[in-house]
Structures are given as structure tokens and as C-alpha cells.
């Protein structure tokens, strides 16, 4: 039997999947790393931690593998998007990576519009200039850390840096480059116009490549450290959401994905670049050559639940925390939560908004708060689904992946709130599976990603909405939608008090 590895460099952990030629996940290893949050709105990681944990995860996987490691023929990546990694001319990392959920760059986003023009910027990139994207981070470093900026020779995204350390090759694939805010999405080139207007040297931008393209083999030292064969072929890989889409079979029109990881996304396949959402949802190049996807993003989806767990139930596992979920009625006895704990993107692009619990009552127990957090995350994703429905998409079946898809009761809540069938796959690790599929396709095992998907992706269960609960959630959702407007001004006034 032959095998491939999908490396998913997530925000909370790196997850490494070993998949055989029949598409069965035969083993997986997950290794966590922390977020560094020096101030409210800041979110960084040390790229060296990604390397240490990825190498360790690969090593563990190989140690547990009973066959000859040369049977593992290929490896590819999925990575958290938008994070800025700056390297100097010796390829040393110049500072911590600034991540997708860091919102320090509101002023730089305004600058981008002032210098490029908002309409022109959206024309080129098909997206708004958002705090989380890479370009405003580059401008922030240029302005606030000029010594570091001057030493920068190239910028990379998180998984591109890991790929570089595994192969010594520098590249960025289109699906991830799309999230930098510097790519001309239709032309698939770095935008010399944006670089020119913002005075960014375009030599900082790395060479571009397709997600399934062969990059090189593993470096000798990485092969030695992990036990993998030095002949293992490495393929570029893609943005985690593009890979999540591949790993869930979102490879044709009409398919919708909901992914609840640290962030939460609702994603829809786009055959070509013709749809104009005017920046209301993100619009990026897919990991499938020539295709695109649109998506709405909740910044703190799984992260809200993780925050709640770490703050109020630090020693407990998620399974335990969620054990009482179905004992609490829909609507948590009048308790609503908005998951804006690090600001928000869709539908409210707002770095200053923060979360709320509305309707706290002395009868509420911890389980009500947990249910309210889970429902609030799901309501937030419903706002993206409604945007797609208003744009004429038919969303009656949604594939659900990510850490949030591990809990059966949460999947039922998704079906009831979204008013759609929820498809649970055999593996909820969509991005890692997508990365493995890119390696399998890159190796030539299949003629297309779709052919690979029909072999690799298995549906485990379809969960239908419960009509009574769905009706109850309709009313609750309209109350939820009012909270943003009614707490916006209060949060702007509170912003100066945040440390
Ligand atoms: N057993 C579980 N049940 C429900 N949610 C879970 C469970 N385990 C993890 N999660 C949620 O999934 C999130 C992590 O999802 P994951 O897809 O691994 O994220 P990332 O790719 O961002 O690292 C956690 O923050 C948590 O909210
Ligand atoms: O910023 C975005 C998408 O635009 C996030 O979806 C990141 O790509 C991080 O993903 P997860 O770690 O939550 O999977």
C-alpha cells in the first residue's frame, strides 16, 4: 500500500494525517502551540514552534508506522491563512508571525483605501482591506518597526515557511496568496499597482505556484529527524479553507461548507471569478486550478468555546464541557451570546466590537452559558449563510468540518439553526484531508481532484433539522441579529479601557 501525509498547520495545533491510497486515514497526530497575545487585538505565534511541533508530529507518525517509510510517497500542506512571516537575506525569521486574528492594523487598512482607492482595491483583489490580511500587517511593520522591515528580503505565509524549512524551497500558492490582499485574483499575479501605490518593493513577494505542484523532496536533515524517506515528494498545498473545501469535496457549484476551527467559515464554490460580492464576503482562488470560492468568516468560532473553557473550565476536556448540551433547551432559557471576542469580519467588519452575554438570569447554570456560546457561534455563521441565500444560492445541505464537527449535539444545533441538512464526513479533518489529496493528485494517483474526492471522501451521517427547534431558532436569530447594532457604540466607548 502507498500513503500520503497531509499537514494541517492550524491556529491551535498542527494536525498530521497519514492517508492510504484508498483514502482511509490510518493514523493522525496533533501537537499544540500557544498564541502570544501581548495586548488586546494582538495575536502572534513563534514560527519556530510550528517547525518543532510539525517535525515532532511527523516523527511520531513514522515511529508508529509499521511499514517501510518509503511507502509514504508524498506530503502536502494546509495552513492558517494571512499570517505574516518575514525573512531576512539569510532566511532567518525577523519577528514573531502576526496572525489572521490580529486586528492592530485598522489605520493601515484606511491607508490602503486612501492610496489605492477602495473601489480599485476591490476590483483587483475582490476583497475588502481587512485587519487580518497580510498586506496591512506588512505596512504596520514598515511603519512601526522600520529596522525589521528594512532587513526583510521576502514575506511568507505560515505553511509556506514550514514548507521552506522542510524543503529549502521558497514559494506561495495562489489560494493562500489570495488572502494577502496583494494578489490580482483574476490575473493570478502580484499586483504591481498596489505595490507601487503603497511603496512596497515587489521583490518581497515570493514566487507563485499551484497548490498541487511539486516543490521538491524533503531535506536530508528533516528526513533524518522524522524518519521519512528523503525521496518523499513535497507538493505546495493551500490555504486551510481551500484545503478544507478540497477535503470535503467542494469542487463544483452548489456545494457549501461550514468549518468550525479557531475561526468559523461558511464557504461556497465558485466556478469562475465573475460573481461580484463587492467585498461583502471573501473571494479567493481555490486550491483547484482555475476555480474560486466565496466565504464568510466568524473570527472567534471555536476560539469562543476555547476561551470559555480555558477561563471557566480549564482542566476539563471539550467532551465533558459539552456533555450537558442537550439537557438545556434551545435558546438557553433566554441567554444569548455574540462571539465577537476578538472583533468580527462577516457580516460586520469591525475590529472594535466585542462579545456579549444578553439575558443573564439568576437561574442560569454553567450549562446554559455553554449552550449560549455554541448557539451564538452558530448564529454568527448563519448570518453568512443568509448572505449566500440572499445572493441566490440554494443552501439546503452543508458539509460540516473542523473541531466543532466532533460533537453530535452541536451538529444537530447547526442543522436546526441553519435550516439545512448537515453532512458529517468520516473525518472532520477537512483541511488535512485536502492537503493529503493535493499530494495524492500531485503524485499522479488520480486524474483530477474530483476523482480523488470520490475515492477519499466518505459521508458518515446526514443530520436533518428538527422542525420545532428550527422554528424556535428563527425567532431567536432575529433577536441575536439586533445585538450587534445595540452594542456597537458601547464597545467603541469601552475600547480605550482595553489593555
Ligand atoms: N470534542 C469537541 N467538541 C466540540 N468542539 C471541539 C471539540 N474539540 C475541539 N473543539 C473545538 O474546535 C476548535 C479547534 O478546531 P480545529 O479545527 O482543530 O482548529 P484549528 O484548525 O484552528 O487549529 C477548538 O477551539 C474547539 O472550540
Ligand atoms: O482568517 C481566516 C480565513 O480568512 C481563518 O480561517 C484562518 O485561515 C485560520 O483558520 P483556522 O485555524 O480557524 O482553521
UniProtKB/TrEMBL annotation:
Documented EC number(s): 2.7.1.17
Ranges in a coiled coil: none
GO biological process, one term: xylulose catabolic process
Signal peptide: none
Alphabetized GO MF terms: ATP binding; D-xylulokinase activity
Function as written in the Swiss-Prot or TrEMBL entry: Catalyzes the phosphorylation of D-xylulose to D-xylulose 5-phosphate.
HAMAP family membership: XylB
Official protein name in the record: Xylulose kinase
Species whose genome carries this gene: Melghiribacillus thermohalophilus
Lineage per the UniProt record: Bacteria, Bacillati, Bacillota, Bacilli, Bacillales
Encoding gene per record: xylB
Amino acid at each position: 500500500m502507498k500513503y500520503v501525509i497531509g499537514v494541517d498547520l492550524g491556529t491551535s495545533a498542527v494536525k498530521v494525517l497519514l492517508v492510504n491510497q484508498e483514502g482511509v486515514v490510518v493514523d493522525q497526530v496533533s501537537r499544540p502551540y500557544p498564541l502570544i497575545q501581548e495586548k488586546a487585538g494582538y495575536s502572534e505565534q513563534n514560527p519556530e514552534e510550528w517547525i518543532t511541533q510539525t517535525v515532532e508530529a511527523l516523527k511520531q507518525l513514522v515511529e508508529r508506522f509499521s511499514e517501510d517509510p518509503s511507502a509514504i510517497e508524498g506530503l502536502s500542506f494546509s495552513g492558517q491563512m494571512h499570517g505574516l512571516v518575514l525573512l531576512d537575506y539569510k532566511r532567518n525569521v525577523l519577528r514573531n508571525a502576526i496572525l489572521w486574528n490580529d486586528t492592530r492594523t485598522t489605520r493601515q487598512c484606511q491607508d490602503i483605501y486612501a492610496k489605492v482607492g477602495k473601489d480599485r482595491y476591490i476590483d483587483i483583489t475582490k476583497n475588502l482591506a481587512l485587519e487580518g490580511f497580510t498586506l496591512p500587517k506588512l505596512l504596520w511593520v514598515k511603519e512601526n518597526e522600520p529596522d525589521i522591515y528594512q532587513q526583510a528580503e521576502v514575506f511568507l505565509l505560515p505553511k509556506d515557511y514550514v514548507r521552506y524549512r522542510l524543503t529549502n524551497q521558497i514559494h506561495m500558492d495562489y489560494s493562500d496568496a489570495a488572502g494577502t490582499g496583494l494578489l490580482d485574483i483574476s490575473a493570478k499575479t502580484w499586483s504591481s499597482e498596489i505595490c507601487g501605490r503603497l511603496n512596497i518593493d515587489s521583490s518581497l513577494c515570493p514566487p507563485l505556484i499551484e497548490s498541487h505542484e511539486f516543490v521538491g523532496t524533503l531535506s536530508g536533515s528533516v528526513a533524518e529527524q522524522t524518519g521519512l524517506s528523503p525521496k518523499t515528494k513535497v507538493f505546495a498545498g493551500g490555504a486551510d479553507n481551500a484545503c478544507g473545501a478540497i477535503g470535503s469535496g467542494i469542487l463544483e457549484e452548489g456545494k457549501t461548507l461550514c468549518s468550525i476551527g479557531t475561526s468559523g467559515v461558511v464557504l461556497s464554490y465558485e466556478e469562475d471569478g465573475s460573481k461580484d460580492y463587492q467585498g461583502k464576503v471573501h473571494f479567493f482562488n481555490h486550491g483547484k486550478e482555475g476555480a474560486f470560492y466565496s466565504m464568510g468568516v466568524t473570527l472567534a468560532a471555536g476560539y469562543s468555546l476555547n476561551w470559555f473553557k480555558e477561563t471557566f473550565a480549564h482542566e476539563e476536556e471539550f467532551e465533558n464541557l459539552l456533555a450537558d448540551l442537550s439537557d438545556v433547551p434551545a435558546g438557553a432559557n433566554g441567554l444569548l451570546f455574540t462571539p465577537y471576542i476578538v472583533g468580527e469580519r462577516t457580516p460586520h467588519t469591525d475590529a472594535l466590537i466585542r462579545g456579549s452575554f444578553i439575558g443573564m438570569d439568576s437561574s442560569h447554570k454553567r450549562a446554559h452559558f455553554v449552550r449560549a456560546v455554541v448557539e451564538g457561534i452558530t448564529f454568527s455563521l448563519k448570518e453568512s449563510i443568509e448572505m449566500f441565500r440572499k445572493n441566490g444560492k440554494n443552501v439546503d445541505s452543508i458539509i460540516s468540518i473542523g473541531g466543532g464537527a466532533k460533537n453530535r449535539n452541536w451538529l444537530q444545533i447547526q442543522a436546526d439553526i441553519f435550516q439545512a441538512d448537515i453532512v458529517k464526513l468520516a473525518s472532520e479533518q477537512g483541511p488535512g484531508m485536502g492537503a493529503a489529496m493535493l499530494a495524492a493528485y500531485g503524485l499522479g494517483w488520480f486524474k483530477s481532484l474530483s476523482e480523488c474526492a470520490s475515492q477519499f471522501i466518505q459521508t458518515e451521517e446526514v443530520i436533518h433539522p428538527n422542525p420545532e427547534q428550527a422554528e424556535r431558532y428563527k425567532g431567536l436569530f432575529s433577536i441575536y441579529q439586533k445585538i450587534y447594532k445595540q452594542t456597537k457604540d458601547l464597545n467603541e466607548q469601552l475600547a480605550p479601557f482595553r489593555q
